[in-house]
Predict the structure.
Amino acid sequence: MTDTTNVHPVRTIRVGDRSADIDEMLAPLVEALWRNGFDTFTSCQNAGESNADWAHLLPHMAGYVKSRDGWAYVDFPIGDGLRFLTAIAQAGPRDAFYVRMTHWAAPDAWDVNVKPMDLALFDESTPSDFALRLMQVCFPDYDLDEIVRRLDRYEAGDLTDPAPADWTTIGKPGGHNQ
């Protein structure tokens, strides 16, 4: 029997014909994502807490688990993940938040991954067949409120005009990308 107990408290959200039990901290985000037409697969408000048992079962994962404490994630179909990143980039200034979401060297840079998946994982009797299916967007939980604010602005059509980014958090003068 599979244990479906969630590590974090959940709240049932409903948007149109969709409903799901979502980690309490992420419920406003997933509601905003769905209102804006973004599909999601899974989400977690603290990947370190959710995966804490891994360190006992798989000691080599201890560093990963520790590094994910205080980090949330949302898994998207790839196209929706790209549209999400575009939406929140367009709905706010190119400030330190923007730099975290776009540049790998920024303090607390977001971890955005698309990895090939062998479809045979779902049916081991089939030949291996790799495909790209999922984009995981992992971000520090302190960015959650700003993400929701930007999604609300995006939904309202309140977009920010393009302007130079503030790259000072990565040691570059403002307005000069690398």
Notes: The radius of gyration is 18 Å. DSSP finds seven helices and six strands in the chain. Residues 10-164 form one domain.
